[in-house]
What does this fold into?
Amino acid sequence: MKRLFITTILIVTLVVIAFTPRAEANLILNGSFESGPELLEVPGLWQTVFPPSTAIDNWTVIQSDINYKGAYWEASDGINSLDLNGDNGPGGVEQAFATVIGEEYTVTFDMAGNPSTNPGNDPKIKWLRVAAAGDFEDFSFDVTGKTNAAMGYESHIWSFTAVSTTTTLQFISLDNTQKWGPVLDNVVVMIPEPATLALLSLGSLVLVIRRRRG
Ligand SMILES: [Ca+2]
Ligand SMILES: [Ca+2]
It folds into this structure.
C-alpha cells in the first residue's frame, strides 16, 4: 500500500514536469529579428545590411549583404524578416550560443522567398542552407504565385548534435540571383522537449515496477 502511494506520487510528479512549459525555451536571441536597425530606405520599410554588421541584434551578417525587411512584406512572426539576398548577391547571417557536447538540438524556422515580379527575379525556386556543428541541410521555396501580402511561409525543422561548448548557427542564401533571395523569420532552437524526457523517465519507472512485481 505504501509502495503504491509512493509510486503514485512519483508518477504525478513526472506528469506535472512533463506538462510544465520551460521558461527559457528558445536558445536563440532575437530569433524573429524584431530588434534591429532603423528602417531607412525608400519606401522606408527595409534596410540593406553588410558584413560584418551586428546591427540586427544578436546576429552577424556574414557574406554579401541582406535586406532587413519591415512592413514592406508579411513576416511570419511580428513585423520584421530577412531577405537573405540583399542588393548584391547571396548573403547570410549567423548567431553563436552555448551548447553541450553530444546534445541534440532542434532548429525550427519559417521560410519564404522574395516574390518580386521584377523580370530579374529568376529562378522562382529559392534555396536556403542551414548549418551548424559541421552539418547542414538545404531547403527550397517556390515563390510562384506568392505576394508581399501573402508570402506563404513554410515551417521547417532541422536537428544537429553539438560538437563544441559554443555552436554557431548559420542561415545562408544559395541563390546567385542579385536581389531576390530566400526569406527567413522566426528562428527557434531548443533541446529535445522536456515532455519527451519526462515520459521516457515515466516509461523506465513503469518497467522497474513491473520487473519488481514480476
Ligand atoms: Ca519576425
Ligand atoms: Ca533583396
User: Anything to note?
Assistant: The first helix runs from residue 2 to 18. Residues 32-34, 75, 77-78, 80-81, 185-186 surround calcium ion (ligand 1) (CB under 6 Å). The chain has two helices and eleven strands. The chain has a mean pLDDT of 87.
